[in-house]
Write the structure tokens for this entry.
Amino acid sequence: MSPLLAIAAIVLALATAFIAAMAGVGGGFLYVPILTLIFGLAPAEAVGTSLVVIIFTTLAASVSYLRQGRIFFRSTLCLIVPGMTGAMIGAYATVFVPGTLLSVLFSLIVGFLSLKLLFPSFPLVWPVTAGPSCDEVCNDSFSLRVRHRIYYLHYLVWGLMSGLASGLVGIGGGVINVPALVTAGMPVHFATATSTLVVLFTSMTGGGIHAILGHVETTYVVLFSAGALIGGYTGAYFAPRAPERILRKAIGLLFAGIAVAMGVGSLL
């Protein structure tokens, strides 16, 4: 790889991680198309490499969010268990799914997410409030005290779905976690922080399986992770200060463009 391409990889990863940390997602919605459309990796390799890079993105962001005190730990655990299970299943499934279909699935998932961000009433995730539940309280470093109701079945269903999406198409899972948490009544900035820690664990699971399957390109992991560590931490720092409505619309438009680009690219 030429020095110019290496620098481009680091810069692109930094920008992606910054955006991802502000949105509470792993960044796979950008890593996967960058790795396939710009650097020419096969879809399965892009998915595996993306998940390993997401580990570093979310690790840096999680440290920042932990310092802010905005993570609901019981909610995190309720999403991690089904999420890791789903990530394992999704990662192994890539062995049997053609590369073109992986790209199409990626485009569909990101496309539906863009609709949810641009039109909040779009039913991407709906509440599952049956069964047992409990209250959880979070006190952050900004002197806010927030109470949230945990619906165990809701977290089981959507944690499993986010894990499956993570392992299968390399998006980390935050694109489902954040709407699921917000739908359950968690304030968006707390949902972003909580989702980030969940994605760290699901990405470790999915990325580990993909590494075993030989789907991880080490060179790109090193370069992208260098930028991701910086971008992830700074994005998490600025996230609580960003206007929620503007942030949601901007990311929604970005997702729509990515979905179209990946969809067209997979069919050509």
Remarks:
- The longest strand covers residues 133-139.
